[in-house]
Amino acid sequence: MLDHDAICRLIPHSGDMCLLDSVKAWNDKSITCLTYAHLKKDNPVRNDKGLPMSSLIEFGAQAMAVHGCLLLEKNGGKMEEGYLAALRDVKFSDGYLSDISEELVIHAERLYADAGNMIYEMKVEANDRVLASGRATVVSRFSE
User: What is the pLDDT of residues 76-94, one digit of tens each?
Assistant: First the structure.
């Protein structure tokens, strides 16, 4: 539906920092994104041991940002800034993300939205195995 270049035009992350390869599907409530960015040796969130599972927060946050931008664009608005304000009930699988060879599937579902403030439930899977899940609060500034 949307490729990496189209995603980079929507969110402030571009080039290697845009961790999403494509948007598989989206609607007013949720988005599903796909990526193999976790396998790149030059991934910007990778450390000398590999890519920690905690980096999945960034993958999920980018999916939420894309969703918010798509919704605003659909309704004639434009996202100006967004901030990840809080995380809740976050759980990670053991191991390193860089050891997972399968494509990552990132799901984000908007639970609440009001005046630029949003709460999302996110989940990242590989081969039907949940690698990370939790809720995130995003505070954003937008223009209409």
Answer: 776 667 788 999 999 999 9
